Sequence to fold (251 residues):
Amino acid sequence: MKTVYQVPRCIIDSEAGTNFCAGCGHGITTRILAELIDEMGVRENMVLVIPIGCSGSLNRLIDADRICALHGRAPAVATAIKRCDPKKFVFAYQGDGDLVSEGMAEIMHAGIRSEKFSVLFINNAIYGMTGGQVAPTTLLGQNATTAPGGRQPDNTGYPVNMAEIMAGLPGVGYAARVTINTPARIAEAKKAMKRLFELQLAGKGLNFLEVLVPCPTNWGMSPVKAMEWIDEAMIPQYPLGVFKDVEAENK
Fold:
């Protein structure tokens, strides 16, 4: 029988599995990341920077050198590693509460300085692990444990469009947004994520990819409905596309 798919080699074989909830988008993005680590041959030279929150589960999933950063500090840790050893392939994986709330200054200044590492930003529009509180990316009107009547701008502000913000920084080489709610979009997400690998290997400036993913548990939806809600509610606020690709623009 012909093998058409196999578990990426860099995935840690564990009977415990993952602690991602049913329908969580982290599982798909982790699989794409693992596939690319194998395909691009960076595993032996890679350092994966993992923060606090649901993203922290990667610490027991990816068999590569990895370090856990404190709340929001993944860009600072990645900066230190890359500057100490510029030949290392340094990849930060962050959620929306970690990157946009706790670590907004860190990611912005990493972009301002044009640090030479890659960032995968997982946006599920809510605080996942801590119980479904309003996050900086929570949509207006979206229910959360700290906004049972829906997020209102007069007390919690407006959603933050990080891919567009990062694209506006001169030191950022690539900024894009994708999602993983259909097979075709999973393929597009992998293509975009591969750009993070290619541009860092080419020594280009900070590279940033935002991925819209579902959180059925904290959205209070079935996994199928959560995938549909990405189209219905998230994409109108967070449009998909490449907002900056310096290398492509200069060709």
Observations:
- The longest strand covers residues 172-179.
- The beta strands are 46-50, 65-68, 89-95, 118-123, 172-179, 206-212, 241-245.
